[in-house]
Amino acid sequence: MVSFVCACGETIRKPKVRNHLQQRHCEYMSCVDCNQTFYGEEYSSHNKCISEAEKYMGKLYKPGSTSTEGSKQDRWQSSVMEVLENYEGPLRGYVDTLLGYDNIPRKEKAFNNFIKNSLKLHNPVEMKKLWQLVQSAAPATPPPSSNNKRAAEDEPWGGWEEEINRALKKRRTAEKSMPWKQLRDEVVTRYLKKGAAGKGCRREDVNDIMLSKIPKAYLSKSKNKVSLPSEEEE
User: Fold this and answer.
1) For 47-92, how does the pLDDT look when each residue is reduced to its tens digit (9 = 90+)?
2) Are 29 and 6 in contact (CB under 8 A)?
3) Order of all β-strands in the sheet with 37-39
């Protein structure tokens, strides 16, 4: 699992990055392995990095055969992390512990053995609920091809509401929702990348503008999350 170094100097594994950013309000993270810098929510797409062998052997490194099983597990793990990070409920303590693991099993029997040993959880009702939560991440959405991803990145800025809708529709969760801070960071990052604000515009100058553009119908009662209305999801 990839780890990042925050602007504050702390090293964080990916599942803990979102909470760290919300607490520290840091604007960027750098990958420990490749040193690439990610602003706002850009880190979320960085699921796998170069191996230790590739890092230290440089041009002498010769990649082996691609593992389909490894790729499937990576996609599953990424989907599970997203579901767990957005969970709020009575199992939050167990969920926080699960976020520290990068090898969560994909089969129920193996998962139950895993949480018995790792979480010391033996209550069958809670075990079942935890499995149902994790299982909601399956089937994992196949990663987009590099051509499709590049095409999406090349699309011009479409205006605040269109970009907000675009960000929410990309969510794997059924309710197409996300924390407002995460939505703000993702949309503002794209806004600045596309140069829609002109040269010299700072992120902090745009943050409040972006939040004022979120339609009221998209706000939850607690206003902690932004959700796409059901009629807009198609």
Assistant:
1) 667 654 555 555 565 655 444 445 677 778 778 887 887 788 899 8
2) yes
3) 11-13, 3-6, 28-31, 37-39
Beta carbons of 222 and 172 less than 8 angstroms apart? no
Question: DSSP state, 199?
Answer: T
**Could you tell me the two tokens for 157?**
């800025």
CB atoms within 10 A of CB 2: 17
Dist CA 185 CA 87 (whole Å)? 20
Query: ω into residue 139 within 30 of 0, thus cis?
Result: yes
Q: Region of 95 please: left (phi>0), alpha (psi -120 to 50) or beta.
A: alpha
Confidence band of 126 (pLDDT split at 50, 70, 90): very high
Residue from 223, 78, 21, 185 nearest 4 by CA: 21
What separation in angstroms does the CA of 227 have from each of 10, 168, 218, 222?
A: 32, 7, 5, 12
| Domains of the chain, earliest start first | 3-50 (3.30.1490.490), 68-135 (no CATH), 146-232 (no CATH)
Q: What angle do CA 150, 154, 157 make, to 5 degrees?
A: 140
Question: Cα angle at 102 between 100 and 108, to 5 degrees?
Answer: 100
Any idea what DSSP says for residue 219? B
Quick: pLDDT tens for 158-199: 888 898 888 888 775 555 678 888 888 888 888 888 766 566
Q: Cα(30)–Cα(40) distance, rounded to whole angstroms?
A: 11
